Amino acid sequence: MVDDEEPIRRLLCECLSASGYEVAAAGNGAIALSLLMMQPFDLVVSDVRMPVLDGIGLLEQVSDRGLDVSFILLTACGEVALAVKAMRMGAADYVLKPFSPVEISGNVRRALEQRQEARTLKTLVNEQEAKIGRFARKLEEASEDMLELLVAALDAREENTRHHSKRVSEYAVSLSRRMGLDSPEIELIRKGALLHDVGKIGVRDSILLKPGELDNQEWDEMRRHPEVGYSILNCAASLRPAADMVLKHHAHYDGNGYPGQWSGEEIPLGARIFSVVDCFDAMTSDRPYRRAVSYEDAKREIVRCAGTQFDPLLVKYFLKTDPGELDSIHNRFC
Predict the structure, then answer these.
(1) What's the first-to-final CA gap in the chain, in angstroms?
(2) pLDDT, tens digit, for every residue of 48-60?
(3) Does residue 152 belong to any structural domain of this protein?
(4) What is the rounded CA–CA span in Å between residue 233 and residue 170?
(5) 168 and 282 share a domain?
(6) What is the largest CA-CA distance in the chain?
(7) What is the pTM for the complete model shown?
(8) The domain spanning residue 28 has which CATH number?
(9) Phi/psi at 104 (5° precision)
(10) Cα distances (Å, whole numbers) of residue 130 to 120, 123, 143
């Protein structure tokens, strides 16, 4: 109970105590604020006009400090505009002078009931948010399982490049972290790298699994797989942000590559990162038609193609990768 007039303060304290409430008294807003900072209260009943710190000022201080307490303001007829301002600031109610103790007791009861209802609603909202969060995590886990199944199916179809998608996604994550990218962007790049060849679903086995060189017509079909992958990923809302990376993962930094003539920063960062690690994995993995080259030979080739096939800045970051980390990834998915 906050009022600078001692008789009114004492009368209201006695009335509220008789109604079963525990009451503390303060002669101005500054004293009340000190009490509020020391212990929790459910409700403040405060006069508007007071020395040192008035009722509106006390409400502002409580709001600024994020204190969880309801407010009832006592105001004269000529101060209704101030009372309305206080309501807009979050006060629960205001009472016009003159008032009776019984009236104040009723206002206090209603304010406390409203406070309890608000707390109950907040608890229900928090519980619902927690349920939604748990459901979203389960959905994400299920989506991740589906991604793994899809990648496993692609790898099983193209035996010669088994685990290639897993390796390049891990290499891409490693390079992204080295560059200091944030977690959401790294996760997007991981998914894009993991699914970069999903468009090969649309390539005939006779072309995809052909042991010899492809002729021009076969190459034309093979080069369409980024566009097919782009269309597939655009069908899933959770994968749509990675679609552009899949579309442009064979684009070259200088504007060559396929299926379009994108260059420089027209190519998404994820696709530029992927281009480097994809080439590295291709060179350092055995193929039916050649043996894997050493890391050093692969790095020399990547340096040679910096500025043409690869973003030169990303090449610099990649060259700083610890060979032990590259070994670890390769050995986990070989």
Answers:
(1) 74
(2) 889 889 999 999 9
(3) no
(4) 20
(5) yes
(6) 102
(7) 0.58
(8) 3.40.50.2300
(9) -60, -40
(10) 15, 10, 20
For every residue of 233-298, DSSP letters joined together read: HTTSTTTGGGHHHHHTTTB-TTS-BSSS---GGGS-HHHHHHHHHHHHHHHTS-BTTBPPPPHHHH
In a shared domain, residues 184 and 306: yes
CB neighbours of 250 closer than 8 A, spacing ≥ 6?
A: 223, 226, 257, 258, 259, 275
- Catalytic residues, by residue number, are 200
Asked whether 97 and 80 are in contact (CB, 8 A), the reply is: no
**Residue 93 φ then ψ, to 5°:** -170, 165
Of 125, 147, 178, the one marking the end of a domain is 125
Q: Do 119 and 175 fall into the same domain? A: no
Low-confidence ranges of the chain (pLDDT < 70): 77-79, 132-133, 135-143, 157-162, 288-289
Domain region containing 295:
158-332
CA distance 226 to 243: 9
Retrieve residue 171's tokens: 């290499």
Backbone angles phi, psi at 201, to 5 degrees: -55, -30
Tell whether 313 is covered by a domain: yes
Last residue of a domain, one of 72, 107, 125: 125
Q: Are residues 188 and 112 in the same domain?
A: no
CATH code, domain with 269: 1.10.3210.10
Based on the number of CB atoms within 10 Å of its own CB, is 113 exposed (0-12), middle (13-18) or buried (19 or more)? exposed
Strands of the 93-96 sheet, one edge to the other: 43-47, 70-75, 93-96
Tell me how far apart the alpha carbons of residues 203 and 122 are, in angstroms, rounded to a whole number: 54
Residues 269-293: b if buried by 16+ CB within 10 A, e if exposed: bbbbbbbbbbbbbebbbeeeeeeee
3-state secondary structure of 202: helix
- Rounded CA separation 113/93 (Å): 12
Angle between helices 101-157 and 164-178 (to 10 degrees): 130
